[in-house]
Design a protein that fits this description.
By secondary structure, this protein is an alpha/beta fold. α3 runs parallel beside α5. It is globular and about 55 Å long. The chain has a domain of about 210 residues: NAD(P)-binding Rossmann-like Domain (Rossmann fold). β2, α2 and β3 form a beta-alpha-beta unit. The chain is about 40% helix and about 15% strand. The structure holds uridine-diphosphate-N-acetylglucosamine.
Amino acid sequence: MKKILVTGGLGFIGSHTVVELQNEGYEVVIIDNLSNTTISVLDSIVSITGITPTFANIDLRNQKAVGDFFDNHTIDGVIHFAAFKAVGESVGSPLSYYQNNLNTLIYLLQELTVRKIDNFIFSSSCTVYGQADSLPITEKEPVKPAESPYGYSKQAGEIILRDSCKASELNAISLRYFNPIGAHPSIKIGELPLGVPQNLIPYITQTAAGLRGELSVFGDDYPTKDGTAVRDYIHVVDLAKAHISALARLMHKENKSNYEFFNVGSGTGSSVLEVIKAFEKASGKPLRYKIVGRREGDVTAAYADTTLANKELKWKTTLSLDDALASAWKWQLAQEK
Ligand code: UD1
């Protein structure tokens, strides 16, 4: 049985990926410092799969603790989710973002290269493209100046990985996520935003649940079909499965070079108003919203060309925006109970 380390394995995307790894017969070891999640997610994972993953509460900024961990575990591959991800917060705390998102990556890669563990998957983001010149976005699109330290931490992470692969036996894949949403069909794991949500879907579900007064739609004067910004929303379970495909590619040595990157999205662009309509249909509830000014740093439109991931990873999405919104709503209702 191959043993996979999942850092940030109790987070939103991490927990869904742990479930899919266990379903595929991998043994999972989770490292998480619980900075943006709770330990109860571990029990939820067990209640879905019936398998208890090994769990280590380690802060990856502690280089000695990282070394000690690898002294005690024989690992075949790493999926690295652990990172800070709030764009606005990163503008106010750039050093903590760079320290957390880059030091942790460097410490892991140092251990991997010394110990000859050569399979690594990195959580990157479509934010690296900024406002792309052409849509849908292919991997040939250039990386643009980032809008925030968070964005730069993802760009720098990719560069660190690319250069480490060049200089060693390491094989790595960066997955550039578009907008992950939704919850596991069991409704036992999902997104746990702390405080006021910054992202669209949790804000919508909390508004529909009466926890927020109304949704502010950031801008209706974009050059898009209805004036609101367009994004590529992907069901988190489809996204989790992309990691399984990428891992299989590395494990079976099917990768074409030792550093590769792929877009992981649904391939469909949806405007904010389209998402609201789809949510109202999925939940059967009208949503209170108002149009306000644009949010600083937002791009007009971003959606993926997934041809490369479909072909090379032998992966495609199977769940729709409606599926994702219905699961997000059920998850919201389950939180209240
Ligand atoms: C954001 C980040 C992105 C990051 C991702 C992580 C920015 C600029 N980008 O993506 O780098 O990888 O989160 O999840 O922050 N919207 C509203 N009202 C709201 C919230 C959002 O109208 O209350 C709109 C936004 O303007 C945007 C769309 O909904 O057009 C999606 O927003 P969001 O969910 O925050 O994701 P992104 O901004 O695309």
